[in-house]
Amino acid sequence: MLDEEAEGVRSLYALGVVRAAWTREDVLGACLLLETEDVEAARTACAALPLYAREMLDVQFIPMRGYRGFGQRN
User: Fold this and answer.
1) Which of 3, 8, 47, 61 has the most CB atoms less than 10 A away?
2) How many domains is the chain partitioned into structurally?
C-alpha cells in the first residue's frame, strides 16, 4: 500500500498540487505542502491517496497565504 501512496503523491506532484514532500524523522509519516485554491480542494486532491481514503492518516490542513515580507516595498 505504501508504494501506491507514493505513486499517488508523485501524481499530485506532477499535477502541481504537491509542491514539496518530506518524510518525518521523529515518527512514521510525512508532511506534504499542497497548493490549491482552498482547503476543500486540498481534501479532494488527497482523497486520491490510498492511506487518506482509508482514513489511516492523522491529517491537518492548515490554510496559508503568501508571506507579506516578500511583497512589494514602498
Assistant:
1) 8
2) 1
CA distance 74 to 65: 21
Whether 68 and 60 have beta carbons less than 8 Å apart is answered as: no
pLDDT of residue 8: 96
Any domain includes 69: no
CA distances from 3 to 7, 14, 55 (A): 6, 16, 17
Residue 68 lies inside a defined structural domain of this protein? no
Residue type, 56: M
> Considering the entire predicted model, what is its pTM?
0.84
The domain of 27 spans 2-62
The Cα–Cα gap between 11 and 74 comes to: 41
Average pLDDT estimate for 29-35: 95
